């Protein structure tokens, strides 16, 4: 193992964004109006957290790789970082995919080269050890240990330059929560993020305008190009070609109505937890366990707003820069969330004069998130080619939200807030340190205003073919040459942001397909975030 990799303030601030390959191997599906056939060793369907790393590793390992992406490639200079523009351009269905259930929950997903990593918060946590232990006991994933996955995490963290947010870049939004948590004696720390030369623009969720956020579209995809891979944008995979029980190709439709046929021996599906089940189901694959499209966890979240007598300017600094893990062992994490004024305007649960007054006071408003490691489970199916998601929040998770919202309100009072807005239907604006309305409220799922950013588990991996769609090497059972590399493979909620877990599993898959040993030479990070999680959770009905 080589020397330690720096993860402090200098590593966070130094360097500049995009890796520039010798050539950009990009083909626009809009230019393919007829039939085109190409030959490759591997076809990767999707260019997000699961697709881009496996494509890069396979290409560097000597394979001819084709990446199919339904969305577009965006230059950093084209990222305007304005919510009203970016939602329509960078998100699937303008960020309006939502669950059917109690309560309805919005599930925003990226649709571009880089997938959701282009528009996420950039937060990086390794899979907590108790979660890996739960996977071993419940799903028979004996190889998914800290020791086994460590080299792959180190490789991902090096490529993405995962480093800790410096206090001076975290912004006042994080500072007031840190101040309140410290006053109450609660544990927390600054988050680790995939950045290079971050200046705290405050608009991570709308496309980083400086190229500092190291999403896979400017890291892994260009490195795949440098190794000979080609990305086709504006292309939607429609069906797999099978022969004698193995995959031999992919047929896709281009945005201009043409057809692209990729002849290959390996196909890696990386469409994400909401789209991969429907794609496999249309091929009549992966259904043998009865679990395809089931077991959906979404890591539901909400946010509290608080007004102060001091200037906060939540958009000045890193939006998600600090976390409080005092309740992490109970499945609740508090993490920063912030954005420009129009983000605050469209996300605050107030109307009329009260909403107007809040926006007039926007420079004094702080916002922070509550995320729950859910035991609730949903189901996704494809209806007319689009994901339909059913998800109901169970009482146990409602109770977790109560814990998190009460604690975050206490933190804000301790930090000196004068008003707190809790996103619960019927809850008045709290003033003067009063928590009585929260304590006395009869909590119900329908009263909560939620979003879900981390859908997982809809084609989960496991040793038992009766309970899992994929095997331990992420292969789809029943057909040779077909693997899944995305969030759908992750067996359960993690309790933390999942992006580098997905990337580490993708890297492990690539090394497996290449038949090479784990990259044990990767440098050990100086430090990494380790939230205080000592147990993991599954629904009570999940069999051992």
Describe the structure.
This protein has 14 helices and 23 strands. It has helices spanning 9-13, 51-60, 83-90, 129-139, 146-160, 167-170, 172-183, 220-226, 276-282, 341-347, 352-360, 395-415, 436-440, 499-514, and strands at 26-28, 35-39, 42-45, 65-69, 105-106, 162-164, 188-190, 192-194, 230-233, 235-243, 246-254, 259-263, 266-269, 300-307, 322-324, 332-336, 365-372, 378-383, 386-391, 419-421, 430-431, 450-452, 482-484. Helix 2 (51-60) packs parallel to helix 8 (220-226). It is 25% helix and 19% strand. The strands form five sheets. Strands 5, 7, 14, 15, 16, 17, 20, 21 and 22 form a nine-stranded mixed sheet that branches. The protein has a six-stranded parallel sheet with strand order 1-9-4-3-13-23, with helices on one face. The protein has a four-stranded mixed sheet with strand order 2-12-11-10, with no helix packed on it. It is an alpha/beta fold and 544 residues long. The relative contact order is 0.21. The two termini are 37 Å apart.
How many strands appear in the DSSP assignment?
A: 23
- Separation of termini? 37 Å
User: How many helix segments?
Assistant: 14
Indicate the overall shape: globular
Q: What is the rounded Rg?
A: 22 Å
How large is the share of residues in beta strands?
15-25%
Mean pLDDT, as a whole number?
94
**What's the story with the biggest beta sheet?**
9 strands, mixed
- Given helix and strand content, the structural type is alpha/beta
Task: Give helix % range.
Answer: 25-40%
Given as residue ranges, the uncertain stretches (5+ residues, pLDDT < 50) are none
